[in-house]
Amino acid sequence: MTTRRRPRGSVQEPIPVGFTIETQANDRLNVLAKRMGVSRSFLVQRLIEHADEELASAGDLIWWPREEELPIDSA
What tens digit of pLDDT does each residue of 11-67 get? Predict the structure, then answer.
């Protein structure tokens, strides 16, 4: 299956986004984008655009853990 890409020049005010994610998350992003037949950047943009559908009344993502539940190593 050929990856559908957005037409050149169709992205309004494009900016490169640089971030680091774990290999497993990167692999999953690749699989999802391939399955949907779109580029990784297009998939990420769509996920962001649809995040509002996942908001609780307080404006937080309904699946996001509370602060005390975040898996952050404080050491």
Answer: 788 888 888 999 999 999 999 999 999 999 999 999 998 888 888 888 888 888 776
Residue with the two structure tokens 């005390």: 68
- Quote the Cα angle for 32-37-41, to 5°: 65
Give the pTM: 0.69
Instruction: Note whether 69 and 33 are within 8 A (CB).
Output: no
Q: What is each CA distance from 50 to 9, 35, 43, 45, 73, in whole angstroms?
A: 22, 18, 11, 9, 30
